[in-house]
Design brief:
The chain contains 1 helix and 10 strands. About 10% of the residues have low confidence. The protein folds into 2 domains: 40 residues; 109 residues, Immunoglobulin-like, CATH 2.60.40. The protein has 168 residues and is mainly β.
Length: 168
């Protein structure tokens, strides 16, 4: 009795299995914004249309330093988006900096808010401007050449991050 050759070659089965695994991997790892989910605009609408409001630096930040340590920042602020964000004086503030690719630090700071215009409440609305004055400890790791984020945490636990304050 002669041996029957295999109906399917090993190479064909290997390629078929590879294609199935690659397809499954793409399906599992595909970002939802590329038309693989039911949500989205479908017409290539603006990517920022669904983003929540945030606070942005609106001008030049004034920096005071002593011995290459930042001790005071005067940060002009405005709103990015349309929904107002509360900035209250009872929040806690910390300054976060990256000293290198593998080292970062956070220091507590005190602050005050001066409203340049607006309706008199503590909510930064679209079109309003405020100035955040931040006092940092005289001994810290906040240097003028390092990236800096300011993180406000309100009494109710909400967190507001002002990114890239020094523009580095």
């Amino acid at each position: 009795m002669a041996l029957n050759p295999a109906t399917y070659s090993t190479r064909s089965l290997s390629l078929l299995m590879f294609a199935l695994f690659a397809g499954a991997a793409l399906w599992l790892l595909a970002p939802s914004g590329l038309g693989f989910s039911g949500s989205g605009s479908g017409n290539g609408g603006s990517a920022s249309a669904g983003l929540p409001s945030s606070v942005k630096v609106d001008g030049t930040v004034q920096v005071e330093s002593h011995d290459n340590i930042v001790t005071r920042l005067v940060v002009p602020l405005s709103l990015r988006g349309s929904q107002g964000i509360a900035i209250t004086n009872d929040a806690k503030l910390r300054a976060e900096t990256a000293m290198s690719d593998t080292a970062a630090a956070a220091v507590p700071a005190t602050f005050s808010v001066a409203w340049l215009d607006g309706n008199g409440d503590s909510i930064l609305d679209a079109g309003e401007h405020a100035v955040l004055t931040v006092d940092l400890p005289a001994v810290s790791t906040i240097h003028p050449g390092n990236p800096l984020d300011l993180v406000l945490k309100s009494a109710d636990g909400a967190t507001l991050t002002i990114e890239n304050v020094l523009g580095n």
